[in-house]
Amino acid sequence: MSFCRLSIAFVLVFLFCQVSIAAQRRTPIVDAVSKAHAAVVNVRTEKITQRSNSPFFGFGDSIFDQFFQNMLPQRTYKTQSLGSGVIIDSEGHILTNAHVVEKASKIYIALSDRQLELEAELIGQDRRIDLAILKIVEPGEYPFLPPGRSDDLMLGETVIAIGNPLGLGHSITTGIVSSQKRRIQIDQQLSSIFIQSDALINPGNSGGPLININGELIGINTAIARQAQGIGFSVPIDTAKRVLDDLIDYGLVRRGFLGVFVGTVSSSFVRSYGEGGVLIDEVEKKSPADRAGLLEADVILAIDDIPISSPDHYHSLLQTYTPEDSLKLTLLRGLKQVEQVVNLELLPEGYGLDYSRRIFGFELHQGKNGLLVEKVMDGSPADQVGMRRGDLVAKVESAKVETIAEYESVIETYLGQQPLKFTVVRENTGYLIELP
Fold first, then answer.
1. Which of 99, 191, 197, 313 is catalytic?
2. Is 61 in the active site?
3. pTM higher than 0.85
4. pLDDT tens-digit profile of 322-333?
5. Which domains does the chain show, CATH number per domain?
6. Which residue of 157, 200, 304, 369 has the smallest Cβ count within 10 Å?
């Protein structure tokens, strides 16, 4: 009997020691992951594409491929891709990257504690910011990780990336912040602000959360610099929070209206002040900028303490704000630096078409085969490059436009960015022109 009691005591002591040892190994990173991991989901998408059996298929937009695509039978292909996401509320809204669900016909998610997949629907997306909102179709109370804040990140702070690299389920990497507001050029006319860290982000991590040592959601992992190992980028959660309501309520990010046209500052200005910035060329009457007291010749140095280095940078950053948002502008007025708060408004109805008419100098109407030039204003940029009534406008930049609504939407995307490339077709011959 005494031997049994001794054995039980020994087992209890052993178990207590094991628990004590495990508690000693429980680091802040372990605690942070335990708070967040249940809200991280794997995202699997299915895409349906149709391709012709053209012998020239694979040569891009060749005339042969386009011809055979219309003449030959179409074959249907189903492809799959994997990514990550994070549930941000108990209703099952999921924040992820837009490119993770791009052109998806079906979206499925897997929670960490379930083997079965759940179907999700796309609620809203914005490719410029590379963010999308999904919602789990099946009603329920889901584990979630609410958005935190990213404006107080510190250089050298430990961060943790959770995702689904290579379809392996939840994988966790750690790193440190090397830049809280790194500007990266996405293409010729678009740049974005990212959190830069050395937390390893592999294929499939896209859309997963970046968390701090307290387990708070501070970013959405979105890209790696493929030319340099160990450099990862994440969309700051403060950027995501500004557009969340628009993505959920409208399915897109509405364009905020400020009412200024900007240009580059001179090289002598940069040499004199050691800073970049953009020069306000024009302030539209009765616009938010006009009411806030912005003036022509003011130089915008920063928006919400993010330095502005070029017009492209200015336009890209402005696209992350929505109507009713407030901007804190740091301005150089003469020799004095001032700060001005401006409240953005909804872009006025029909503004894109009015802008196109004023800046480029032509009007369009809807034809049977697309958008036809209805009128070219004398002496306008369109007139100077030889546009004519009856020309077909097929593309603005890389976007195809076939309706007035599509055209206006694209123009509003590129408001203030000049010049723009237009693909114009006349008598079956295409021309690429720049306006203004």
1. 99
2. no
3. no
4. 999 999 999 999
5. 39-136 (2.40.10.10), 158-250 (2.40.10.10), 256-346 (2.30.42.10), 351-435 (2.30.42.10)
6. 369
